[in-house]
Structures are given as C-alpha cells and as structure tokens.
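Box S1 | Example of a co-folding query
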Amino acid sequence: MRTKRFSILFGCAVTAAAAMSQSAPAPYGLTPSERQKEWYDREIIAFFHFGINTFEDFVNEGDGRAPAAIFNPTGLDCEQWMETLKSAGIPSAILTAKHADGFCLWPSRYTDYGVKNSAWKGGKGDVVREFVDACEDYGIKAGIYLGPHDRHEHLHPDYSTEKYKQYYASQLRELMTGYGKIWETWWDGAGADELTTPLYSYWYDIVRENQPDCVIFGTKNSYPFADVRWMGNEAGHVGDPCWATTDSVCIRDEAAYYKGLNEGSYTGNAYIPAETDVSIRPSWFYHPEEDSRVKSVKELWDIYCTSVGRNSVLLLNFPPDRRGLIHSSDSLNAASLNRGIKETFAGNLLAGSKVACTNDRGGRFGARNLIDGNPETYYAGRDGKVKSTVTFSMPKAETFDCLMVQEVIELGQRTNRWSVEWSADGKVWNKIPEADGKHSIGHKWIERFEPVTARYVRLNIEDGGACPALHTFGVYKQSEILK
Ligand code: OTN
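Box S1 (continued) | Returned holo structure for OTN
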C-alpha cells in the first residue's frame, strides 16, 4: 500500500516535471530579426510629409525649382504633432527630411537648397532637430525619410554617378550621426527605382554603422539590405494572403512584381514584411482644399484592418499645414480610431471559455494561452503534427462580428491554411465565409463579418509547414465608434 502510494505520487511528479520541461517548437523557415520584431510591434507609424511643397499651390512632387525663401511656417510646433500621436496611440514617426524636390529641412552642409536659405527663423531653423527633440520628449521613436530622388540637384537620371553617390551619402551621414537614435529610414523608390544595388550597399553601411537598430524601408534593388518592403499601392490595402517573406529577385513582369509586393510569397527567399504607406488625406502634402476630405474613422478602421490586420504595419501620413501644425480633423479622426480599436479589442469574448484542442503540445504550451491576454505565453502543437482544432465553449451565447489571431512570428510562418466556425449548440457548425480558406496569419490577422450569435467557436488549423504556434485568438464586437 505504502509502495503503491509512493509510486502514484512519483508518477505524478514525473508527469509534472515532463510537462514543465516540454521544449518549445523549433523555428520554421525564415524568421524576423530583432529589428523586424520591434517594427511589427509598433503597428502604426506616423508619416509627416512637410517641406517646400507645403508652401506651393497643390504641389506634391515639386520640380526642385521653387525658391527656398518660400518655406516659412508661421507656427511650427512639433510637440503639437506629438500630441496627435499620443492621442492616436502611435509610437513612432517618420519625417520627410528631404522629398523629391531636394529641399532639406535641416541645414545640410552639402547644399544651399534648404531651411538655411528660407525665410523661416531667419535661416537659422532646423525642422529635423525640432522633430527629433519632440519625439524624444514624448517617447516617440523618430524616423527619417531621405528621398533618393532629388530633382533640385538635377541628378536624374544619372543616379549611378560617383558624385550622386557621395552627395546622398554625405547627407545620410549628417542625419544618421547628428540627430540621436533613428528607428527607421525610408528609401522611397518613387523616381528612383533604378538605383543600383552597389549604390545601396554603400549607403547601407552608413546606416548600419551608425544606427544598428534602424529599420530600412527599401524597394527593388535595395532588397538585400531592406528590413521592410513596399506593399504595392498607396490605398492602404495589402493582399490576402500577405506573407512576410517574398522573393528578393522580383523584377520580372509588372504583374508578378506587384503581386510579390502585395501578397509576398510563402516560399519567398527573403523575410521582408510589408509596410503600408497611405495618407489620411488624398494627397501626401497639405492642401487646404482637402480639409473636408480627411479620411473618416470608418475609412481608417478599414485601412487598419487591411494593413495591421493583414500582417503589415501601417505608415499613416499626417501632413502638417502652412502653420506647421496638424489640422484638427486629422488629429480627431486618428484619436477616435485609437479609442475604437482599444474598445473593440479590450474584451475577448472567448476569455471565459472552456478550451479543448486536438493537437496540444502540453506543458506550458496549452491552448488556454490563446485567450489569456498574455503576449508572453503561447499555444503550440506537437512536433510533426500541423493540423489542429481548438474549440471554445463560452459560458453563455455572445454576439460578435470580428476575430483576431496572432502567430508567434519569431518561430516563423508555420500555418498556411486556417478557418473559423461557430455553433449555437456545439453540434451544428457554421462557416464564417470571411474566415474560411484563409492562408497567412503572421503578426496579426483580423477579419470582420456579419454579426454572429454563438456559444461555441472553433479555430481550425488545416495545413502548415510545422506544428502551429499561436499566441492569441479572440472574437470581438466592433466598437460603435468605428462604424
Ligand atoms: O508614380 N509613382 O511613382 C507612384 C504612383 C503611385 C504609387 C506609387 C508610386 S512610386 C512607388 O512609391 C512607393 C512608396 O509609396 C515605393 O517607394 C515604390 O518603390 C515606388 O515605385
């Protein structure tokens, strides 16, 4: 009797010890760098298109001929920009230090075309300095757009010259060494898609030597150095699926090129996730004519769902006006979007559910982790078993019209087919058409659908390259603010 009792206790202890020591799944395929993980977690980045174009009538792509003197914001206040970001819940921002017109917002030693020859502050001002200082004060991660296309210098199309290479390099060095920590730099392909890889290689060294954590947005020939890619349009909608991987040799026919940007490729040979650049107004630069055409909260929510909610990061442009301030309509709509997102995702309706799972790794990887609201824990299946069905039984019927699922991105893109179903009685199951035959998940995937009232929900992982590893799954009711 004594012996048996001992052996039962001993057996339990072994099982518990085995469960505690259950090892994590090995990463599968390509995985993000630390820089890319940090970038994914930002979710939204603000873009500020501000420069000489702001002071011309309806110009977005200046020809580089506007006199520097016309740049003269009457009340520039970068702290007001930061207030907009704080109420919008946006943790990072990128300023167009130099757009395609070539006008420099900082007093570059390498050109006269910039703030030092403007009327603003008697030529003694530095917008980049004011921007990075305000970012620092507000805990916002600062980024710099230094457009490779420079019409003022009339270098186009002779981009491959040594003169141009050094000119850009000198300006890049000024910005990467003189303004503190820079979290992102933007190599816009607009007007510059033909720049060669050796040129980017030279510039890349300047970024990496001085800013090891700086994420590089790159296109085409800068892919070997890019941390994030363009997603193929400026409307805010990435593809479905949207893989973080793509083919780095992507200049085939045009359709394949755009598909590669918009959707990526599950078998792609490079991990370069998609960044979604879109303006809150029709144009990139401020035009008073567009004050009534600021994107509505509903439009912004659509964009959030088709960018952040499709495994991308949203780069949302807020163009400061001629005073040097963000217009109140832009700020108010962005703040409402933030409140609506918070309200929607505050309550995972599956949180109190009983959970059953067909493929449970055990130990600390149980499927309950999907609904514990803790980003540190995750659910994983058993090695070699890619399929899984996780069934959630809620304490009572709930009505929802939105779902969200997140993979453990540091373990790679594992799942490549999934669906979600609901049931009122746990016997008859109904598909959610918008969540059927899905492919990518990645950092975050959101689907919206007609309201459903259900007591049971199941997540089906139907195929993948390795056992599933997911840290969140939830169903939600969209906030009224977003409608
Ligand atoms: O005419 N264009 O150059 C253009 C029109 C619409 C959308 C984009 C572009 S250029 C495009 O810009 C992207 C950023 O939005 C990337 O930098 C691409 O490399 C570039 O080709």
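Residues 188-190, 193, 219, 230, 234, 277 surround OTN (CB under 6 Å). Residues 2-20 form the longest helix (19 residues).
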